[in-house]
Design brief:
By secondary structure, this protein is an alpha/beta fold. The protein is about 35% helix and about 15% strand. The chain starts with a helix and ends in a 14-residue tail after the last helix.
Length: about 350
């Protein structure tokens, strides 16, 4: 049996699970999960709830096969203290950030938004600081619905923080934080299909972004980020899932990273979790392509399941963006491909 199939049997070994529970543990793409479910169902290893993939369990044949499999839980999983991050969270940073972001803007489908848990945003900053990319650095954030800019400002360590985002609600929130907390975060409204203005080009030591997960969209985000950096030794950070970006897509994206004169120094798997309750994005699910793919329309998640890995890259020579001028990508080309099955359609109310 191929590895995806044996992983699925291991996940199901202790009993019936919901699709969302499986997705929260699944290391491959959503589409690959559907293919694996269909194959194992056809071969008699698993069974489901009627014609829907709402609840999945092993058949007797599957239970017999699963007994021979050793899962990660058998040998010890992630450290419960740091959840496998290897980061000690500064308590003062986390508490203040959580308080400051309680009334943050909620995600909108038009910009494919969604924010991670507060502790994960602060963990990003803690990791960046450990790598020498926070103290006395000039940092640009290309898109910031996670409000990592505020987490950076809480530390008091960066020399400069600039946010580039098309959503002016974030700008208003950041301006209020500046007034009330004495921060100096700069906000620049921009659709990144337009090039960065000259005063934001080759001005920064570090970038942070969470790009869309189509190949053209990723190339656009990374090109704008590369254009913002000064040169060799500049660093970049971005999030990327395996749920909407298969390892085949990761291969293509990593080729773009190399072409732009970066090397990947770190990949922290499943570093960030996106909370269902706090994002309040139940309305988004009706537009997700995955709902019809699994025949689970109307069955919302019973747990947090969407997560991303955290990449660090560093320039080994002056960064070379592959997109320089205006970009003519349509909304569909920017946000959607055959793997972006949990990306909302604009206009969801």
């Amino acid at each position: 049996m191929e590895k995806p199939g044996s992983i699925l049997l291991t996940i199901l070994r202790d009993g019936q699970r919901s699709l969302w529970d499986i997705l929260s543990r699944w290391p491959y793409s959503i589409r690959e999960l559907r293919e694996t479910l269909e194959r194992l169902h056809a071969e008699g290893w698993i069974e489901r709830s009627g014609d829907r993939w709402v609840e999945i369990r092993l058949t007797e044949r599957g239970r017999e096969a699963s007994r021979a499999l050793v899962g990660v839980e058998d040998e010890g999983g992630a450290c419960p203290a740091c959840e496998g991050k290897g980061i000690r969270l500064p308590e003062a940073w986390w508490r203040r950030f959580r308080e400051l972001t309680e009334e943050r803007p909620l995600p909108v489908a038009e910009y494919d938004q969604g924010f991670m848990r507060p502790e994960d945003a602060v963990a990003r900053v803690a990791f960046m600081h450990r790598m020498g990319d926070v103290a006395d650095r000039e940092i640009v954030l290309i898109g910031d619905d996670d409000l990592v800019s505020v987490a950076l400002a809480v530390t008091g360590l960066p020399r400069r923080i600039v946010v580039i985002d098309v959503d002016e609600r974030l700008g208003a929130f950041i301006e209020r934080a500046n007034r009330e907390q004495g921060f100096a975060i700069e906000f620049r409204p921009l659709d990144i299909r337009r090039p960065l203005p000259p005063d934001l080009t080759q001005r920064f030591d570090v970038f942070v972004t969470d790009p869309v997960e189509t190949v053209p969209g990723f190339e656009l985000f990374l090109s704008r980020a590369a254009a913002s950096l000064r040169g060799r030794y500049a660093a970049g950070y971005f999030g990327l899932t395996t749920l909407e970006a298969s390892l085949s897509k990761w291969h293509r994206l990593q080729q773009l990273v190399l072409r732009m004169n970066f090397v990947i120094t770190d990949v922290l798997r499943d570093f960030s979790l996106y909370p269902e309750r706090e994002n309040r994005w139940e309305r988004f699910y009706a537009s997700y392509a995955m709902m019809s793919l699994f025949h689970i329309e109307g069955h919302l998640p019973d747990r947090d399941w969407y997560r991303s890995s955290f990449f660090r890259i560093e320039a080994v020579a002056p960064p070379q963006p592959t997109i320089l001028g205006e970009c003519a990508l349509s909304e569909t080309e920017l946000y959607f491909d055959e793997e972006t099955l949990a990306t909302p359609r604009a206009g969801v109310s």
